[in-house]
Design a protein that fits this description.
Blueprint lengths: L1 H23 L1
């Protein structure tokens, strides 16, 4: 289940970047 954990971390990072981008608008 290492891949799922990696995907979860990637999703969290992507979510953080998306949130920053939206907040910047």
């Amino acid at each position: 289940m290492h891949v799922i954990r990696c995907l979860l971390q990637f999703a969290k990072l992507f979510n953080a970047v998306n949130f920053m981008l939206i907040g910047d608008k």
